[in-house]
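hey so i finally got around to running the thing on that chain from the lab meeting. sorry it took forever, my laptop kept dying and i had to restart like 3 times. anyway pasting the input first so we r on the same page abt which one it is
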Amino acid sequence: MRRVLAILAAGDATRAGIDKVLADLGGEPVLAWSLAAGVAAACFDEIVVVAPSEKLASVEKIVRARAPRASVVAGGATRTASSWAALDAARDADVIAIHDAARPFVPPSLFARCVDIAAADGSAVAGLPLADTVRRANEAGAATEEVSREGLWSAQTPQVFRRELLARARAAAGERSYSDDAAALVAAGIPPKMVLGERRNLKITTFEDLSYARELVAKGLAGFPVTAVR
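ok and heres what got predicted. didnt touch it at all, straight out
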């Protein structure tokens, strides 16, 4: 069974105010953290990094220095388009794991666990059951109702699928875009399996997120995955 990891690094940085994927985090680019975790997981036969077409050279330089056998391909204008670019680049994959480069603290063990579950059950989407009280508010910020959190999850990545399921979701999607790949499966009538993720697997969206991630590294609460060059 051939297992491929696709790291999506093609998103824009409008909310962060900087290029969060290439930004420094503990002396390494943010992208390098996910790349190192994927290598350390030791469960992938191939790694594909999806990058903006205008930054292919910069991303390629980062990737080549840390995973010489990984490939770099151009992404699309949306997250969904970049996922489909990864799918095209992994035509011989039996299982494909899709991970956002903006989640640098993903544990290698989470990659391995999701791959094993997806190989057996078809899919594995990392996430956390909601623990906080959830309220809906109007445009003025006034709370209008409390929403039951029972059965609600906050989705993370990696999101791992048997390739044929993701291909079916792509065929059903047409030109539509989704917030993540699990949503594309749901829209195609394929219920993905949620798998308990990790609280440390935070996503860098804003500059404040990046500052927090840097603080965790500076305090020794997050460390760069130790890997051999592959």
